[in-house]
Backbone:
């Protein structure tokens, strides 16, 4: 599998914090989409879409699962995201070195590549992990392409 | 060489396994264990469970259970082996010394923490169960 090392630039984001069972992430995503449309601060066509994952859904209790649904904020957005009914807040994806692997196919199978990074690639690479969360960059979305055409870059933050 | 790096990585977990065994009666927390391995606590849970094939808490329970075996089991060792043909590795915990009359206590456990892991730990037969399903259930839009 092809793993690249890249420098990811710090990115300002709008964040909807999903807290609870993994199968309900889609419900939270609907709120985020609603905010995107209403606010116009992170248009889906021109702003990148990210997901930041805190816990392994296969080992954490469902109620404790944490996942941030994120949209890049354009340069013209200064300061904080204005108060909104969906509870979307401002945030940052920290910049720095990352290992990146591309996944093609359904989001349900992202875990296989995440496991590969932690279990196979990391030990053999000699790299050290940075104190930052693993995140996904969704290059396209379910609303745009069929599941087998979905492309997602998985970023694992590394120390410099 | 990547083999050297893998060995170095393995040795850091060996230190964690040793530490757990020496502190079975104590309250163990992630921060402490990640320090022993010189890993960041940020990623330690996942690194541990993917290396050992079992969560930290299930591993601790398993070692405690294994100690109840008649002859005692002094060392539990995780072993990450390449499967023929490549692909994902299988993770397994292997007991280095097993009680008399027990041929092998070697098993692969699911990653979900479960008392099933402890039950397998005290069963005298080798068990193999593989689990490769994905986990990052992060679908949206």
Residues:
């Amino acid at each position: 599998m092809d793993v690249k090392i890249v420098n990811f630039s710090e990115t300002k984001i709008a964040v909807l914090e999903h807290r609870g069972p993994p199968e309900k992430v889609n419900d939270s995503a609907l709120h985020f989409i609603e905010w995107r449309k209403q606010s116009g601060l992170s248009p889906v066509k021109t702003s990148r879409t990210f997901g930041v994952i805190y816990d392994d859904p296969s080992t954490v209790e469902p109620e404790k699962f944490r996942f941030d649904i994120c949209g890049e904020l354009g340069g013209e957005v200064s300061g904080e995201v204005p108060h909104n009914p969906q509870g979307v807040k401002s945030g940052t994806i920290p910049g720095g070195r990352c290992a990146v692997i591309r996944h093609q196919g359904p989001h349900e199978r992202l875990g296989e590549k995440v496991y590969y990074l932690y279990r196979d690639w990391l030990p053999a690479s000699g790299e050290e992990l940075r104190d930052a969360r693993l995140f996904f960059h969704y290059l396209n979305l379910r609303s745009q392409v069929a599941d087998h055409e979905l492309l997602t870059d998985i970023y694992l933050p590394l120390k410099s | 060489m990547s083999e050297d790096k893998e060995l170095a990585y393995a040795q850091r977990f060996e230190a964690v396994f040793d530490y757990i065994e020496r502190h079975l009666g104590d309250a163990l927390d992630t921060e402490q264990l990640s320090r022993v391995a010189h890993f960041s606590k940020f990623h330690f849970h996942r690194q541990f469970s993917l290396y050992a094939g079992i969560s930290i808490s299930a591993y601790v329970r398993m070692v405690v259970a294994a100690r109840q075996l008649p002859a005692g089991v002094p060392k539990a060792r995780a072993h990450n082996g390449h499967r023929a043909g490549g692909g994902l590795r299988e993770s397994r915990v292997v007991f280095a010394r097993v009680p008399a009359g027990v041929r092998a206590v070697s098993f692969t456990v699911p990653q979900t923490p479960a008392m099933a892991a402890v039950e397998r730990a005290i069963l005298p037969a080798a068990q193999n169960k593989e689990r490769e399903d994905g986990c990052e259930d992060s679908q949206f839009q």
